[in-house]
Amino acid sequence: MALKSKVQSVLISWWRKDTLLLSTSRTLNTFATGYDNRILKSPSLVSLDFPDEWTSSSTNCNAPSTNKLASEETGRVIDGKQIAEEIISGVAVEVERMKKKIGEVPGLAVILVGERRDSQTYVRNKIKACEEAGIKFSLTEFSDKCSEDEVCDAIMSFNMDPSFHGILVQLPLPQGLNEEKILDVLRLEKDVDGFHPMNMGNLAMRGREPLFIPCTPKGCVELLIRSGVEIMGKKAVVIGRSNIVGLPASLLLQRHHATVTVVDALTSNPEEITREADILVSAVGVPNLVRGSWLKPGAVVVDVGTYPVEDDSCEQGYRLIGDVCYEEASRVASWITPVPGGVGPMTVAMLLYNTLESARLIYNFV
Amino acid sequence: MALKSKVQSVLISWWRKDTLLLSTSRTLNTFATGYDNRILKSPSLVSLDFPDEWTSSSTNCNAPSTNKLASEETGRVIDGKQIAEEIISGVAVEVERMKKKIGEVPGLAVILVGERRDSQTYVRNKIKACEEAGIKFSLTEFSDKCSEDEVCDAIMSFNMDPSFHGILVQLPLPQGLNEEKILDVLRLEKDVDGFHPMNMGNLAMRGREPLFIPCTPKGCVELLIRSGVEIMGKKAVVIGRSNIVGLPASLLLQRHHATVTVVDALTSNPEEITREADILVSAVGVPNLVRGSWLKPGAVVVDVGTYPVEDDSCEQGYRLIGDVCYEEASRVASWITPVPGGVGPMTVAMLLYNTLESARLIYNFV
Q1: Do A256 and A194 fall within a single domain?
Q2: What domain range is B290 assigned to?
Q3: Which of A323, B43, B98, B177 pairs with B155 at a CA distance of 20 to 30 A?
Q4: Are B208 and A180 within 8 A, CB to CB?
Q5: Residue B155 forms part of a structural domain
Q6: ipTM, 2 decimals?
Q7: Number of folded domains in chain B?
């Protein structure tokens, strides 16, 4: 008990420290920009940020592919659902062992702002998986009219609560809420989504290990490894460079020694570049962006995109489709992840894994 | 005076905080690795780190290029020396203004460990440039037999000294000294080299601005901008993925909306990839790795590599050659940086700029 209270007091000194970290990302942009023009010609980086606009897309792609097929065989499906279940079972065993040995279980706090249907579905899946694995779960919901301060206060209270080892803010946040400001409040040691810039920097830099690797990219690489796909020395193309998936996926694949190209909406000839890829990861949420003709025969295709389309035949009134035209791509690829049932379940499994890891680190539970 | 002492006390509370940050990069690798094998197949990231080994190279490349030349004209030379001088003059003007207005000048502390001849040259250039710009300079030298603790103690004393706004540890460190451990001691707010993982994460993530961008990549991009080279939508290839140059260069070019590919020593066909590049940045320190035949006609070539070769005709007994075979490349490229006199002086200019920026932020001097 004395040890536990010592751990808690160390953690509390950490929380206090973290709230100061707000000042370390440069928010004085107008300040810096006016000055940059005088000595340097380089603009501030945030002045370069604008939303990606992908040209054209279709929710249908049943037209025959014009690509020469390697064979008429269908690419092997990477069963993310099955692999995620195996991982969640593994987590459950460890949670049980922790409970027996030290009387504690990992705890995950999720904060959901607004009424997005897809976000609600994702959160529901996370709750279900936590129950399955024996992880304590808390959901805090806010309306999309709430203030940044309300969300920050909730995060700070979980920062202080030693029974929660992971905190996750379901993204995207409603417009008008400052994502950077909100995420910066979240304690690094509970950042099981791995979105803190310190975690991202440690993911990027050789010789370093982040506390947590973002769940979706980590899930993608785990799928590749479990499918026996060689990453080292291979050409990988990541479509999209979001902070949540595209960026960390490219960094993680680089750490695995792939030769990585990141394609964004400004790339003039994306299909030429993707046709060189041994491994293609697409994460933009544009339905059927990637056609069969975009792929090299035998490529491994990981489809992170999810886009909800109305479908009354589905229980929830909609179904999810991916970035990749599955019908076409499955005839060209050697391995392919389906949507749904590919990367999605892996994201949840990795979240549970990271939460367990966090509890293990905090309790020094080997 | 009261304000100044308040600033100092805030800074001191920052230093204290930073020493705790040591715990945020996961150093418990054996702990994590043994466990990863049970639930996940993914290895720990540092277990994937090994030194790049580039195959073959030559210090001579006068053989005629086999590449079809765009024309017999020579690519225009990007005069890094001249541009760096302009920037240093601009910094000097601002330093003078700061001195007049608030009676303070920026201060830079450099720590040099060991006897590397090239490191000594770089440090000498930094001292000279600081003198030129009116920046206060301090050099602390250690023998290569010193302990990590000695270096860390020196850093911590500069962390505490409010007259130094930038601290730089000249890399590489002698073998046996833990670079991560030493750099982690350095206060984020004085990390004018931009190598702290927090700065690297903020450089990588859209919507964020690092306190400092690493000097060499920042210098490369400034050279491109000043030469009127369009970056947005262009294909850029970065050869090498060191934490110091290759990685931050790729991140910075991405923030400028280039489509970036990072080539490393494991890439099977680097010359095929570089032949697609509109902009090529090479940063591996392998003399004449990049031949004329590696380039697309009209490409812009930024040569970061420096490799010392013995040359008695030079004052210092050696001269520097780059990664790029200049004779061949200059006949294919539209723009090219020479070695020396290209990126090297820009690195120094950017260091001075970052040091000035740091002092401006700390003194809130607009």
Answers
A1: no
A2: 211-344
A3: B98
A4: yes
A5: yes
A6: 0.87
A7: 2
